[in-house]
Design goal:
Elements (H helix, E strand, L loop, with lengths): L2 E6 L3 H10 L16 E7 L12 E7 L5 H10 L5 E12 L19 H16 L9 E8 L11 H7 L5 H4 L13 H11 L6 E4 L11 E7 L3 E7 L7 E8 L2 E9 L10 H21 L5 E6 L6 H4 L6 H5 L2 E2 L9 E3 L12 E3 L2 E3 L2 E5 L9 E3 L5 E2 L32 E7 L33 E2 L8 H4 L6 E10 L4 E4 L2 E7 L10 H7 L3 E11 L2 E11 L2
Parallel strand pairs: 4-5, 10-11, 12-13, 20-21, 23-25
Antiparallel strand pairs: 1-3, 2-3, 4-19, 5-7, 6-7, 8-9, 9-10, 11-16, 13-16, 14-15, 17-19, 18-19, 21-22, 21-24, 22-23, 24-25
């Protein structure tokens, strides 16, 4: 006799209890003691990666003696997929609240920052994050550039109560048609939590750094949104930058330690590197203390370090915070240091979260410790690290971030940084490819610009932009077009397209040097066919020259 035992994706103890008592999914479990001792898997219903629904069922045909019940249970448990989860770190570029107290003039009400523009920012961020887990909530979100709450008298102390109180109204209505001055004091973290919940990305515990007042000199704070319990957390001040948030999360009974960072800005400015060295020293001391207590601690370091993964190669003459002090490296065997930078999971030309003056950069980071490669606790899912690039939402036609702008009634764009993410699981590390040994460290920044782009862009004629008002132009920000223009002047750069004169800028200084646009002024009466990006600068419309195609 052969019967089917239905094994639910639950704990091993429940499976044992069900089999021994005859209870559970099927209470008529039977075995044929005269048959050979074999275990045949007839069918498996495997849950999607990282998700194990309570009703995920596998059917196992059992034909073995009762004496081998332990083996049956062990084989059944092997069918249960271990819990997997996603960690995202994301610099959301100035997510400011609407309390009219801002250290940045652009985000004051009298400068045109409104609740409606905050809504646009929130909609962009949630659209990006919904793409991570097939529409499900990414389990751990590590944010940078939420505005610090400068009106603590009106802050949100209980986030669950906040969501419950406003469960019958959407964030879209709160920030637009049904705006109330009573909402003005809500911090950026509460608005972001509400926006995520409205899109089904819910269940988060939230931690931000405590209020330090205007004397701190920092407009921003870091934040942790976690669907796992946050057991403890502490904010650690660092010089001229945002507090590092250290937190212990509990994932299925296992401890995961996360460190959320946003170091001093100015990655391209070596004069600021001594400040980042000091930032790195604080973080390094925290990691050392944690690893001294437990060398196999499961640790994730994440955030905007305002440093490139190859900072020492780009600036070999100076001591760098990220490489020389923190010890970021590219070896998964950890023979040089105890931190593996996940940028080494990608090919060198694919390593970027920003584009600055036509060159890619890696300011966003995720680093992990040896504990995430061992046989117990939490493990990194090999090869799962990547950046989140969504053309038409947070990326333009050639894969550059579409940064935020505040023009018009709604503003537009998302962030000047791409988020990066990786997946982790409870259980032993499993290598799916050769482990990185830290090679392919570039000593230069790869280009990413229209002039050197090898793909087919299929660009449209942008002459229609001439007839649109600034308000009508907003949907076209960041998009690329071809135009026949006349160069009216080089410094300042002015272009005439049909009858409209446009202020202009250039994505590469070489465009205004000898052999660039001046050549067309001299030899072609200024007539030149260009690839341009439409954008706004300080509230005024402009064209950005991306490539010179020739004369017309």
């Amino acid at each position: 006799m052969v019967t089917l035992v239905k094994v639910f994706a639950v704990s091993a103890s429940f499976i044992v209890w069900s089999l021994l008592t005859g209870c559970g999914v099927d209470s008529d479990v039977g075995v044929d003691q005269e048959s050979a001792s074999t275990l045949e898997v007839r069918e498996q219903t495997i849950a999607p990666e990282g998700k194990v629904p309570a009703a995920a069922i596998s059917e196992v045909a059992v034909d073995q003696p009762v004496a081998s019940l332990t083996e049956l249970v062990e084989d059944a448990v092997d069918l249960v997929e271990p819990l997997a989860f996603t960690v995202v770190t994301y610099n959301v570029e100035n997510l400011f609240d609407t309390d009219d107290f801002s250290m940045f003039d652009d985000y004051k009400v009298d400068s045109g920052y409104t609740p409606r523009k905050l809504l646009t920012k929130l909609q962009g961020i949630t659209s990006v994050l919904k793409s991570v887990n097939d529409g499900n909530a990414p389990e751990i979100l590590l944010f940078q550039e939420l505005e610090a709450d400068f009106t603590p008298e009106s802050t949100v102390e209980d986030y669950d109560a906040f969501l419950e109180m406003y469960s019958d109204i959407t964030v879209a209505d709160m920030l637009d048609a049904e705006w109330s001055d009573a909402y003005a004091g809500f911090p950026a973290s509460a608005w972001l939590l509400k926006a995520l919940a409205d899109e089904g990305l819910a269940g988060y515990h939230v931690v931000t750094a405590e209020y330090r007042g205007t004397g701190s000199g920092s407009a921003h704070t870091n934040a942790i949104f976690s669907t796992f319990p946050i057991i403890s957390h502490e904010a650690h001040p660092i010089v001229m930058a945002r507090d590092i948030i250290e937190a212990e999360l509990e994932v299925e009974g296992e401890s995961l330690f996360v460190y959320v960072n946003h170091w001093k800005s100015g990655a391209s400015n070596p004069d600021r590197e001594p400040i980042r060295v000091e930032n790195a020293k604080v973080l390094r001391s925290l990691i050392d203390a944690r690893l001294e207590a437990d060398p196999q601690a499961d640790i994730i370091i994440a955030g905007d370090l305002n440093s490139h993964y190859n900072h020492s190669a780009l600036f070999p003459e100076i001591v760098t915070g990220v490489n020389d002090i923190l010890g970021s490296a590219g070896s998964e065997s950890f023979y040089e240091t105890d931190l593996y930078n996940l940028w080494f999971e990608l090919a060198p030309e694919a390593r970027y979260s920003e584009v600055w003056r036509g060159r890619i950069g890696t300011l966003m980071h995720m680093l992990i410790t040896p504990g995430l490669y061992d046989e117990s606790g939490i493990s990194y899912i090999d090869g799962s690290f990547d950046k989140l690039v969504i053309p038409g939402i947070n990326a333009d036609a050639i894969g550059r971030p579409v940064r935020w702008h505040s023009t018009g009634e709604t503003g537009g764009g998302v962030s000047d940084h791409f988020p990066v993410y990786a997946r982790f699981s409870v259980g032993a590390f499993k290598a799916t490819a050769a482990l990185s040994i830290g090679e392919n460290v570039s000593s230069y920044e790869y280009p990413l610009n229209v002039a050197e782009f090898n793909g087919d862009l299929n660009l449209k004629d942008g002459s229609f932009l001439n007839s649109l008002s600034d308000a009508e132009l907003i949907p076209y920000v960041g998009q690329l077009y071809t135009v026949n223009a006349i160069v009216e002047s080089i410094r300042p750069l002015r272009l005439k397209v049909s009858r409209r004169a446009w202020p202009a800028y250039y994505s590469d200084p070489r465009f205004i040097e000898e052999g660039g646009l001046p050549l067309y002024v001299e030899n072609h009466r200024g007539q030149v066919n260009l690839v341009v990006q439409f954008n706004f600068y300080r509230g005024k419309s402009q064209l950005i020259v991306e490539d010179i195609l020739g004369s017309w």
